[in-house]
Amino acid sequence: MLNEKEITSISKFLSLVLRHKPETIGLQLSENGWADVEELIAKINAHTFKITKAILNEVVVSNLLGLVPRSSALPLVLSLCSE
């Protein structure tokens, strides 16, 4: 389990890469702005952080829980955790 500082650092880096500068890690987004999760993880690992799919899920869930009421997020959290 990550601490709050680690979650924040990874979250900020993901925002940079996925919203503004995918070229930072050599990531090519689809024409609709999507990224392949396995490619994203591999390129992040080669560039800076060492993350896994479980860590990525933890960061995403942590961010979602901060944005929506917990009762609304529960179905989404359960579906993410079951992947």
Structural class: mainly alpha
Q: How would you name the oligomeric state of the polypeptide chains in this document?
A: single chain
Distance between the termini: 17 Å
> What percent strand?
under 5%
The helix tally amounts to 4
Task: Write out key terms for the chains shown.
83 residues, mainly alpha, 4 helices, 66% helix, Ptrans_KptA/Tpt1, RNA_2'-PTrans_N, RNA 2'-phosphotransferase, transferase activity
Please give a structural write-up.
This protein is mainly alpha-helical and 83 residues long. Helix 1 crosses helix 3 and helix 3 (53-67) runs antiparallel to helix 4 (70-81). The two termini are 17 Å apart. It has helices at 4-20, 37-47, 53-67, 70-81. The protein is built from 4 helices and no strands. It has one domain (4-81). The longest helix has 17 residues, at 4-20. InterPro entries: Ptrans_KptA/Tpt1 (IPR002745), RNA_2'-PTrans_N (IPR042080).
